[in-house]
Specification:
The structure is a homodimer. The first copy, chain A, is of the alpha/beta class. The first copy, chain A, is about 45% helix and about 25% strand. The radius of gyration of chain A is 23 Å and the shape is elongated.
């Protein structure tokens, strides 16, 4: 069974187009490579009610994991954990373990002479204020800990928005959880590039190859200046083959078979296979 | 009143982390610059039921506009319009105006000697198969037309996933619709950069400046290797000020006032303003 994951990104900077959502891209790639499947990505603003709504909506779809990014820091606009608490209808209070993690960071700063004393100001305690009954995840790159909540069959994980912190907590605490669920499933992909055929001419050939190779997904991507150019001159069409299987060798064999069949169909129709990646 | 917009991006390539979602970024930036506000971005797979669900969910929130990207092409996996038809419970049939647009493209290819005759194959007719009661939007860059549907108070717009085509239809047909609704509203933003203070020390200063400058939103962004570095050495904190106002001069004055006040607070706390953008 496919391990389904939803990603929720919290941050006004994403909704005003200030920041490109590289976190969603990184997570999607990583989750896929672990053999699980991202079913949905949702981006919402830094508002408690928005976060609460989107968390509740995602939980209703019962994915195995929900991963949020952003909104764990010390400033007023970091509202993800308050939003999750509201969404889960849980109390929002200081998590002792998270507070220890935060305190430890400032003790390191003290040793390094970066601060004069360890003060747990309200802004710093804020980073350790969690929905009740959740677990803190160590952030060895930054200050704000991540969070793990179990809600029915779903593990809800909150990661920071600063990319190296998000990635570090994911690798340290989340990768193993997903891998355990996904088992031996592997995602396999391979691309070939086609010249001399329009996408609309490729369409029925793709249908045929898909029909003969169940389990393999084939998607065409038009590059270059435009689809018009590709339709007219055909220089920029990628055919992307992918599959998820329990064994590496099975997956590879399935893809190679589909690629071989579609390549033949393309050549019979006057197209050229430009290169294989 | 704020003109609210939701963006829905359709495409497995986004969910497997193959493609970075630059379309959502471009649209969010453009929509914000027109004085409207993106409330949510949702990414879903190339499945009719997924598209139907996400469209229905978005319509329930009654945004003024919903803009979808992707899934308008000739191949089997281009299912956005079928999904919208299902979501709106409308028939899915050939749109005569869209078919004329598609036909015209192939007549151009014929003239250019790229094809030998104009054949409206099923894959090509597919690009002109629309939910009933909707309008085709001209695509002067590519082949597949965009779509406009009116659903209650919401205008639902479907754009292609190929970036130059998406941008071209947006500029030709959508910009004026949004501008008309947003009226004279303008979005204004300005950043300053802070050295020598931790984000957790900045937090209460930001609170104070926000309190004294209603309508101005101030968000801190930590750059560099990590928040830890920024917490420890403070070299990479951006303070981003933004507001939406009816007049350019009013917006500018509001931002300058907030920047002046927060700069003073930062300096009083021992921080340095590194540069102003």
């Amino acid at each position: 069974m496919v391990v389904e994951i939803e990603i929720i990104c919290v941050g006004n900077e994403l909704l005003i187009g200030k920041t490109l959502n590289t976190n969603a891209h990184w997570l999607a790639k990583r989750v896929t490579s672990l053999g699980a499947a991202v079913r949905r990505v949702t981006v919402v603003s830094d508002e408690i009610d928005e976060v609460a709504s989107v968390v509740r909506e995602a939980l209703k779809r019962k994915p195995r994991f929900i991963i949020t990014t952003g909104g764990l820091g010390p400033t007023f606009d970091d509202k993800t954990l308050a939003g999750i608490a509201k969404g889960l209808r849980r109390k929002f209070a200081v998590n002792e373990n998270a507070l220890k993690m935060v305190k430890k960071k400032y003790e390191i700063f003290l040793k390094e002479g970066k601060i004069e004393k360890v003060e747990l100001t309200p802004s710093r305690v804020k980073m350790a204020t969690f929905p009740e009954g959740t677990k803190a995840l160590r952030n060895h790159v930054g200050t704000a800990p991540g969070m793990l909540a179990s809600v029915g069959e779903t593990s809800l994980i909150a990661l920071p928005g600063v990319p190296p912190e998000m990635e570090a907590i994911f690798e340290e605490s989340v990768t193993s959880m997903i891998k355990k669920e996904a088992g031996k499933c592997v995602f396999f992909e391979k691309s070939i590039y086609v010249d001399g055929l329009m996408e609309s001419n490729l369409a029925p050939l793709i249908d045929q190859a898909m029909h003969n190779n169940s389990g393999v997904y084939i998607k065409s991507h038009v590059y270059g200046e435009s689809r018009l150019r590709a339709e007219g001159q055909g220089p920029h069409i990628e055919l992307h083959f992918s599959t998820t299987a329990e064994h590496r060798t099975v997956a590879k064999k399935q893809l190679d078979r589909a690629i071989g069949q579609l390549s033949l169909l393309v050549q019979k129709s006057g197209g050229r296979i430009r290169s294989a990646a």
